[in-house]
Write a structure and sequence with these properties.
It is built from no helices and 26 strands. The protein is mainly β. The protein has a single domain, classed as YVTN repeat-like/Quinoprotein amine dehydrogenase (Methylamine Dehydrogenase, Chain H), CATH 2.130.10.10. The strands form 7 sheets. Strands 5-4-3-26 form a 4-stranded antiparallel beta sheet, with no helix packed on it. A 4-stranded antiparallel beta sheet has the order 6-7-8-9, with no helix packed on it. It has a 4-stranded antiparallel beta sheet with strand order 10-11-12-13, with no helix packed on it. It starts with 8 loop residues before the first strand and ends in a 7-residue tail after the last strand.
Length: 304
């Protein structure tokens, strides 16, 4: 059984203890444009007049140099914990932001950054997609525009990064493969070693998230959504979205099992939409004037 979160550990960053608590099902965190925001999913199907309960742009973090703020024009992942939100942008930015004061306790520039996850020893893994095509490891102890990664693993179309606490490994999703990667963190050098790899059933790996049952991973591609059985090493079509194209994000609430996802607007032939979609029961919520790319439950799973 895997444990992706719901753990207690002492992070080297400021001595913060990440707790196992979870917020309610009614809030989601959204990204796609330059603003990352949290909204409550009220009863109405329109959120045009909803006031986000939390919002952030790079300009809200004075620690981020002014010439780096444009690297957060197109945010593409936003992974929350109780204390922080880990933000990546295809425009080339990565930031770890505290909720309370919007301080960026870590930032750097990574080409086409598409996702990230926290690691032990105050590290971070970043999936650098097309143009970068690599899984990168950084130390959170130092920020900067031109930081050199501690380790690099070349990986075509890297799109997803997820820490597996039980295995002490990284799951990484690329254009054609799912990898299980060991981080060999020595006294002087950090290296990455691929332990296992699986070919995706369809091309264009996009989103990678843990399922509620701790045995499966959600994997989206250009053509479909799958659940990957980590014990049997099998991709299983996720029935409600088995043939859904352009699913940019999917997230299953760890307590309730409710699924929230974001699907590109095929009618407009764009990568984004202004819709938050939910399953069981099905519901579609319009977020006026927004270009959504990823939608996550605003729930604390620890450092993912």
């Amino acid at each position: 059984m895997m444990v992706f979160g719901r753990l207690f550990f002492l992070a080297a960053l400021g001595g913060v203890v990440w707790s196992a608590g979870a917020s309610g099902e009614d809030r989601v965190i959204c990204c796609g444009g330059e603003e990352v925001f949290v909204v409550a999913l009220a009863g109405a199907d329109q959120l045009a007049d909803a006031d986000p309960v939390w919002r952030w742009t790079a300009a809200d973090s004075p620690e981020i140099p002014e010439d780096l703020r444009s690297h957060f024009r197109t945010t593409d992942d936003c992974k929350p914990t109780a204390e922080t939100i880990l933000i990546t942008s295809s425009s080339g930015g990565v930031a770890l932001v505290t909720r309370s004061d919007k301080k960026s306790v870590f930032y750097t520039s990574v080409r086409n950054a598409h996702s990230a996850c926290r690691l032990p020893k105050n590290r971070i893994a970043v999936a650098s997609s097309y143009g970068g095509d690599a899984l990168l490891i950084y130390s959170l102890a130092k920020s900067g525009v031109d930081l050199a990664p501690l380790a690099t693993l070349k990986f075509e179309g890297a799109h997803g990064a997820l820490w597996d606490h039980e295995r002490q490994r990284i799951w990484a999703l690329g254009d054609h493969e799912l990898l299980l990667v060991e981080v060999q963190d020595g006294a002087e050098h950090v290296t990455l070693q691929v332990q296992e790899r699986w070919k995706l059933p369809t091309a264009g790996g996009h989103d990678l998230m843990p399922a509620r049952d701790a045995r499966h991973l959600f994997v989206t591609t250009n053509e479909a959504v799958y659940r990957f059985d980590t014990q049997n090493s099998k991709f299983e079509p996720f029935a409600p979205l088995a043939k859904a194209k352009g699913i940019k994000s999917i997230d299953e609430h760890p307590e309730t099992g409710r699924v929230v996802y974001q699907q590109a607007d095929a009618a407009k032939d764009v990568w984004w939409s202004d819709k938050i979609r939910l399953l069981e029961p099905e519901r579609t919520i319009t977020v006026a004037d927004e270009r959504l790319y990823k939608v996550r439950w605003d729930v604390d799973r620890g450092a993912r």
